[in-house]
Amino acid sequence: MTLDIETLVDLYRDMWLIRAFEFGLEREFKKGNVPGMLHTGVGQEATQAALAAHLQASDAFFPDHRCHGINALAQEKHQGDGERIMAELFGRATGVCSGKGGSLHSANPKVGNFGDNAVEGSYMATVLGVALAYQMRGQPNVACCIIGDGTVGRGEFHESLNMAAIWKLPVLYACVNNGYAISMPVGKGHASADIVDLARGYGFPCEIVDGNDIEAAYDAVQRAIAHIRAGNGPYFLEFKTWRWQGLFSGEFRSPEEVKYWKEDRDPLKLAREKILAQGKLSAEDLERIEAEVKAEIEAWIDFAKASPMPDPAKATADVYVGWEVTA
Amino acid sequence: MTQATTRTRTFVQALNEALDIAMARDPNVYMLGEDIGEMGGDFGVTRGLWAKYGDARVRDTPLSEAAIIGASVGSAMLGMRPVAEIMFADFIGECYDQLVNNAAKMHYMFDGQFKAPIVVRTACGGGFGGGPHHSQSVEGWFLNVPGIVLVAPSTPADAKGLLLASIENDNPVIFLEHKALYRIKGEVPEGYYTTPLRKAAVARAGSDVTVVATMKLVHEALAAAAELEKEGVSVEVIDLRTIRPYDAETVLESVRKTGRAVVANEAPKIGGLAAELSATIGEECFHDLKAPVARVAGLDTPIPFSLVLEKYILPGKEEVIAGIRSVMK
Asked: Is residue A41 in a domain?
């Protein structure tokens, strides 16, 4: 399919925002300004941009650990303050969770972000309940969980798909198959390198999507969400993609593989070619967009750095609803 | 205030009444678990409720404990009030992550933006030959988990009032139902009422020694107290009722009065509730104590099948009496 130029350019801008966010974050992480761990979504921008484009603030999504991008897009799209995701990753009081959650636990229900759970796949069970609440209340909303290929090894994967199937729950499973669970190749860690092979037995629609082709990703998400909103139950999308980030210890994949994905299959490069092929925007137009986005991200980083640290006394707040911690 | 009429009810009937009342009062309350629908649950706690409230609100599930708790938490994030049944507490390992890393931390890690007001009812405790995987006391598994509430009734009236209070509470509650108590009878008020969480009960007043007990051991302690009364020993029995966060005030007030403390809990002795209570009493009441705190608890073993073996490792009235004698020396 071919998207109209306005939609395509919007998606390109969103994908650029994700990449600039992650590169900026990585730079600050290396300088020691970002505590904890860092998992970036560079290379997987098309999937996140497509999901963010179709999910509404009244829907729910559970992001995974490489989802700073969709978190920031949802925050920016529905509340206009994407910088609060950046501030959360810097552990600041202005973050969406006031610095309590960080990279792996950023949430904001007002924009549909139901939060990551850093025990990968744990929220595959949680998403069932959100979907069940929608169903019991007759709301036409979608509960989406974004998982990686590694998560498929968890028991919750199967418990979740089974229960979503028997209860016909409005769940969108967005499986971002980037080829590796940390260092484990997908075909070595699972009975099939195509995750849909493991999902199909549950009897609802499952598709393999080119996760580096923004038009294909946008189209697939649109199709899946329409199916779910119409009350037809769950839908499973497997996005084939590749993560740019190696291991903390360095690159572990072959030079040929790295070159192929970064040069031939870069989702931004592919999107740029699609836009230019329509002949309505020039390379200079796109460079201007890229510069605008990069400037915005730098402003977010400045905001995060300038933000106050949380009050240490807040560390004992909200352990229980309505009860103070006494010990 | 007029006193509500009471009737004699079993522990199971009292729980069933609480569920019925909660379901009728609040459309957000629903139940899910294995065989809780038409069958009425493995112990009959949900009997009749499927016929009354239907499939949507009394949901039978597959053997998917993680999905049961995950679904509970997810729906609670949107304001539902799920009451999940985990058939045997021993199966909680299957959903431990959901309870510890999701339910318990949801409110905290997301800075108060979500709540997880779930109730997880589960049958615990030994004494009937259930063997290693149908008999355990799991409170110790959760004592070290901030954010979790552990409720453990010992009487039918408290079972009803505490369950209603747990369903209304905004925190994730693990509601422990000791299997040995399911068939006991007691006076249960009619209609709606709640029994406060985090509030221990003085099950029997006394002046010489305090026994802090939970669930079945409350009854063992009361029997021990009755027997020792004949010897002139006055035993105060505190029924903790909420295990986490527990009512330290009532416990410490009693120990300051009596100067002697026995803590009685069925779970293995090492690192459990008995150890926690003992430590707190030691820290807070050291100068009031006339003897070291005694722990009456299960032996540090898994639970064996044969009744003779099981009886050997689980504490009962005789062990409580021995504990009291040790602090009365």
From this structure: yes
Catalytic pick among B134, B178, B219, B287: B134
Asked whether residue B178 is domain-assigned, the answer is yes
Structure tokens at B42: 């493995």
Can you give the residue range of the structural domain that contains A250? 5-254+288-310
C-alpha distance from A116 to closest chain B C-alpha (Å):
10
Going by C-alpha positions, the residue among A182, A189, A241, A211 that lies closest to residue A37 is A182
Q: Which of B189, B217, B249 lies at the terminal end of a domain, its last residue? A: B189
- Chains A, B: CB contacts within 8 A come to 145
Q: Which residues of A touch B76 (CB under 8 A)?
A: 129
Out of B121, B156, B189, pick the residue that ends a domain. Answer: B189
Region A32-40: mean pLDDT is 94
The answer as to whether B195 is a domain residue is: no
Considering only alpha carbons, which residue of chain B is nearest residue A62?
B74
Question: Angle, nearest 10°, between helix axes A267-277 and A5-30?
Answer: 150
Please tell me which of the candidates B66, B78, B102 has its beta carbon nearest to residue A130. B78
Choosing among A134, A318, A325, A326, which should be mutated to test the B contact, i.e. which has the most B CBs within 10 A? A318
DSSP letter for each residue of A50-66: HHHHH--TTSEEE--TT
- The CA distance from A149 to A238, in Å, is 9
Contact A97 B245 (CB under 8 A): no
Please tell me the total count of domains within chain A: 1
Nearest-angstrom CA–CA distance, A274 and A221:
19
Nearest to A100 among B62, B109, B147 (CB): B109
Parent domain of B179: 7-189
A215: domain CATH number?
A: 3.40.50.970
Task: State yes or no: is B134 an active-site residue.
Answer: yes
Q: What is the CATH number of the domain that holds B42?
A: 3.40.50.970
Q: pLDDT tens per residue, chain B (329 residues)?
A: 456 799 999 999 999 999 999 999 999 999 999 999 999 999 999 999 999 999 999 999 999 999 999 999 999 999 999 999 999 999 999 999 999 999 999 999 999 999 999 999 999 999 999 999 999 999 999 999 999 999 999 999 999 999 999 999 999 999 999 999 999 999 999 999 999 999 999 999 999 999 999 999 999 999 999 999 999 999 999 999 999 999 999 999 999 999 999 999 999 999 999 999 999 999 999 999 999 999 999 999 999 999 999 999 999 999 999 999 999 99
* Beta-ladder partners of A181: A184
A chain contacts of residue B248, beta-carbon cutoff 8 Å: 326
**CATH of residue B263:** 3.40.50.920
Instruction: Characterize the bridge pairing of strands B81-88 and B29-33.
Output: parallel
